Fold this protein.
Amino acid sequence: MVRSHLIGIDVGGTFTDAVVLDGVDGRLLAAFKLPSTPDDPGRAVLEAVAKIAQIADVRGALLCHGTTVGTNTLIQRKGARTALVATRGFADVIELRRQARPILYGFDVAISEPLVPPALRFEADERVDAEGRVVTPLDGLEALAQELAAAEVDAVAVCLLHAYANDTHEARIVAALEAALPGVFITRSSDVCPEFKEYERSSTTVVNAYIGPSVSRYLQRLDAALEARGIERLVVVKSNGGLTAPKNAAAYPVHLIESGPAAGLIAAAAYARASGRGNLLALDMGGTTAKAGLIRDGEPSTSGEFYADRLVEGRDVGGYAIRSAVLDLVEIGAGGGSLAWIDEAGVLKVGPRSAGADPGPACYGRGGNRPTVTDAHAAIGTITAHTFTGSGVAFEREAAIAALQRHIAGPLGWSIARAAYAIIDIAVASMAEMARLLTVQRGLDPRDFAVMATGGAGPLHAAAVGAEIGALDVIVPPFPGMFSALGATLGFVRHEVVRTFLRPLEALKPERLIEGFRDLFRRAEALLAAEPKGTSAPVFERYLEARFVGQLFELKIPLGSGDAGFPSAAQIDGLFRSAYKKEYGFDLPEAKIEIVNMRLVATLDIGSEGETLLRSTGVAPRRGEPLRRTSFLTRSGETTEIPVYRAADAPGTTLSGPAIIEHFGSTAWIHAGQTAAIGPNGHILIRLGGAIP
Amino acid sequence: MTGASPGIIDRDPVVFEVVRSALYAICAEMKSVIMRASFSPLLSLSADLSCALLDARGHVVAQGNDIPVHLGAVPFTVRAALDAFPLQSWVAGDGVLLNDPYAGGTHLPDMSLMMPVFQKGRLIGFSLSRVHWPDVGGIAAGSSSVSDEILKEGLRIPPVKILADGRPQPDLLKVILANVRVPRDREGDFNAQIAGAARADKRLVELADRYGADALAEVMADAQEYSRRLVEGRLAALPDADVGHAETLDGDGVDPEAAPIVRVRIRKSGGRFIVDFSGSAPCVRGPINAPMAVTASAVYYTLLSFVGGGIPPNGGIYDIAEIEAPVGSVVNATFPAPVVAANTETSNRIVDILLAALAKAYPERVPAGSYGSACVYTLGGFDLRRNRPFVHYETVGGGMGANPQHDGVGGIRVHMGNTMNLPIEAIEAAIPVRFHAYQLRRGSGGVGRRRGGDSVRKSFEVLAEGVEASILGERTQSPAHGVAGGEPGERAQFIRHRAGEPPAMLGAKSGPHRLAKGDRIEMVTASGGGWGPAGDGGDAA
């Protein structure tokens, strides 16, 4: 299928990034940044489209979009006036949560405020048991609908006990409410998250309702505006990295919470496949946070549950449980703007508080006078006025040095060099810890991974993080500053549908398995009907989630794809036991196995050729000369000069550190003892020579 | 720090921070392995377990973000294990198990497993996990009921070498499993505990391989020094005080007249924190007597939280608290006094009593009283429909006391415990019960400038005959105190509803009750106290 162009747009807090790829050969036609428009994020998207229309024909294009509208609605508490309908006696489940407190030692415990206030929690007379049998038939539906109509809400979440086992009561309530409350966003737990554990399921459904109206409004308006400009289709990146049409995205906005970062990981995975390096540790560092994710054998790892908005000013307040497939990300409060400070025992700390965009680091000359990670770089010389050319920042190295002297070097009796390097070392240590969370803590050896750095500040620290965790080497990919926008264009349409199917494996009847997956197929087909046409037929993968009877953590057992036959119970037994042994190191021969969930994953290829951008091409190497030399403060406090290169001018060049490479809006720092090879397609491969001297 | 040379904390702060963080990460990973491999919802869903790493002398260097009453008692566990098996005698693959509250334990269900870690033949530390087994025998399912001596509370295990070469001694394990309910699940839980220790061993050795055993030992020493400095520094910055407080506990479940007094005097002088329980009542007949390890845990928790939190808890802080508690008293129990409820109930009351004393000198730094409890209920019996015996143990949250800055949180675990609830959908899928309500008792928190946290009402019906139930709760009589003019919170209630009979009030510590099919148990926990007078303008929100 021929499509004119693929457009990728990622809306971040500061910048809206756009890339345009030729729909046929994946050639990059344009890549640029515009200031974001936080009051109406769609405006920057349309501005980007208008800019693209000046250089290319956007008619018939597919626009792939990573958005933070859902996250921002949640984090800024700008969601809908939302009601909850729960089983009588259980309306407080979303407030009681799992009853644990997030901090252990300390009296001032705070917990994320429930998104539905008590007055908007309604109870239905009904009850279903764990096997899905109706214990108390649903009653009083009309009165319930009237009460809800009088409450004047914009969204309703329906979450009944054991609705994963029997959804008829939820479905009837939704039908009655849809009739009584026209225009209200109504969603039910058996649809959004049909899995057991009432708090997690309810919380997921409530978040879906809370951000539902604003996300669906945003998507509808954007879709209509794009259509008016001749764009053929809009697709949105989900937390699981898959793409989906606005209609599906608007029904399950909770699946968009990690849309932006997921797009970055999709690009990382595409890079891993294109470069033949299957194992990457993707590290993205911006102004306030750093995020990391893992690519193994060319695929990002996923997790089934996370807590949104868990850290408020660096303090754990529990957050909102969301059960949904999400690319596995770790995030910490360590960015370029993170503040350095000394605690009362005299130990240097970095973050989690940040100078933010305003006033920003001291070296921005906007009135900030507390030292940040960026100021440490300014003092060392890895960031200079050149870094900020055209950005409106009046760079002042002296202000950075003064802040370091006053708050760190002076009180500790250290030199400026020692203070600056210590700040960077600690920021690097936090990032390394995050990298270890993803690798070492999961039994993976960091030596099997290359660190891939993106974001404005990622390439500045990546070589040091890589050396610290003992990674193989470090890669700065092409377009490190626009990686998420690129990633949006590289995804597949992807849907996961799941149903709880609790029973002993030995009692598994093949016809129930067939019937269960047939139901999941129907649900997946309904979702796929709204999607753009693929370049080939959709692919379906089937999974069973199982555990030993008595245990409560499941392992996922692949059951093959499409309509191939199912393995027998005995074969499933063997598959489970070998997976268990791999995970825990032992088998439990006497323990019996039970099945918990059936899961179906549907993927559809939209035909992006963007991966070619990430492959090495045959561009003729050019020996690059340094752009300039820059003043550089060494760890021992001497001032020397090091060369600064521009990646675009030096394809095929291999250079030795210490050096700085400017690369598409970000800066890579190559340390002494390391070498960097600049590839023809614009990637930089840094070979780590062990520890940094 | 010993010697004149600066420790690694000053010489190489980065290695210090990196390795110290790694030690905490190992505790978290160990816990995650145990939870995932365990056979009890109490572990896999409620996380009633704690993990710690010790240095080569047995001092705590890092601990998980787990259960304060488990963790504060670790030094006692280590002392008992090392008294029984001197340091020089440990070899790789050894494992010492204990649960005896009179020899390093907290209460019988908490099973502690301590294993040494060797790198290249050198002892570099120990792992220790304390895992709550849902049953360890005794007079009632769940081993958390009311009796008048510890021998009736369950199987008592002094420090014994359960593992050699990393494998359980089969005879010893047989004896243990023959004395607990649902032994197959207990064996699974014990396997999980061993798997957790094996993981900790692997990770600690990796750390020593990477940074060197000497550097690791230095970090372990300095981590304790770092925490000690922080606590002492913050204490010294506060004005000195000499304050006292006394309250009676809410009965012991055996003797209807029991109302033992807990009396405390706290002297804060410079960086010292001296806590004297002289004048506290002698042990009572019921299970509310606190072993020294539990009392000390409550003091450590209070001290760490009082100085402001955010301090990595480890062996460095334990020596700061100087604790006096009369031997044979309700806060320093002696054999054969029963103790099971002290871990969950008395420990939280001790914290509230310490806080009430501190409030007299530092009202701006301490919260009002909380629900004073973990509120444990246990069920056991035979499930005809699923054709298997069952044991069930769960805690119920309550109201947290208000603090000077914020209203108290409602329906949450406070102070000495932090286990999660079990999802109602998980309980109903496993045992013959049906829940009727799980809700907040709104407006029950003490009134004040900041309101106390609301308590919880949780009620269920049993769907089988002959289910046995026990309750260990608190504050059916004494409400959570307010501070600085705040009002007390509402009290707890435990009620049995049976068709055709008036509701029967159950004791806060009572059981085992034999329930009939259709009986309902309604549990209402206590609410938190308020902080500051109501209506003085601070309550605008």
